[in-house]
Amino acid sequence: MMYLLLLVGFVLLIKGADIFVDGSSSIARILKVPSVVIGLTIVAMGTSAPETAVSINAGLAGNSDISLGNIVGSNIFNLLMVIGVSAILCPIVSQIEIIRRDMWWNIAVSAGLLIIILDHNISRMEGIILLVGMIVYLVIVVRSALKNRTQGDEMKTMSVPKSILCMAGGLAAVVFGGDLVVDNASLIARAWGMSDTLVGLTIVAIGTSLPELVTSIVAARKGDSGIALGNAVGSCLFNIMFILGMASVLTPIHAVSELIIDTGVLLAVSVLMLVLAWTKKKTTRLEGIICVLCYLAYSVYIVVR
Question: According to the model, what pLDDT value does residue 108 have?
Answer without folding.
Answer: 97
